[in-house]
Amino acid sequence: MSLPDAKTIEEASKLNVLDSDGKPLTFGSLIQDNEVIVAYVTTLATVRPEALEKANKKLIIIGCGTWQPIKAYVERSGFKGPIYADPTRGLFNLFGTISSLESTPKGEQKKSYAPTSYFYNAVGSIWARLFNSFSAGLQHPQHVGKQGSISQLGGEFILGKDGQCTFAARMKHTEDHTEVADLMREAGVEYP
Predict the structure, then answer these.
(1) Rounded distance, CA 45 to CA 120, Å?
(2) 142: helix, coil or strand?
(3) Sign of the C-alpha dihedral computed for residues 90, 16, 64 and 112 taken in this order
(4) What CATH number is associated with residue 60?
(5) Could you list the residue ranges that cross the membrane (predicted)?
């Protein structure tokens, strides 16, 4: 699939996301001042805020659930940047992401962030995702069921101030995020 075009970015700019307090913001307001790296993964917690600042970039994460679990998610993940919720999945749909519960296909090398333990391989990523949701739910029972669809895949997108997308990677399976080092190289951000 190709890069989102200017029309898609313009449509996306009009959609609302919710911040950690449930306040609606247009996606356009998030991407207007800096080149923005839009991602759907918390392995980005390893990106140093000062490296983003030096490169004049902003990194945001957008999830498909409701806004209520965001603060607990920040606490658990260690991610220092803004996280938003897109419970309607409008951005996910506009940017061409898919839903799937498939893990890394046989013969394809796993990404560095993907667990390779015997247990994980035996039960698959779907069970690991369910377990993570369950264990988070034990700590924050009020968030159970608010994490969004576990089958919704995301991706990574780099959007310029001019409304152009310069990089897009859409997940094809549950372990298909772009490696953080590769994404930061594409964005011109020093890593680690």
Answers:
(1) 22
(2) helix
(3) positive
(4) 3.40.30.10
(5) none
Radius of gyration of the chain, Cα coordinates, nearest whole angstrom? 16
CA 108 – CA 95 distance, rounded (Å): 25
pLDDT for 118: 44
Alpha helices in the chain (DSSP H): 6-13, 27-31, 49-54, 70-77, 90-94, 118-139, 180-187
Rounded (5°) CA angle 151-5-42: 35
Alpha carbons within 13 angstroms on the beta-carbon side of residue 16 total 10
Q: Is omega for the bond preceding 24 within 30 degrees of 0, making it cis?
A: no
Of 190 and 149, the structure prediction assigns the larger pLDDT to: 190
More confident residue, 74 or 17: 17
Let me know if residue 88 belongs to a domain.
Answer: yes
Instruction: Tell me, yes or no, whether 192 lies in a domain.
Output: no
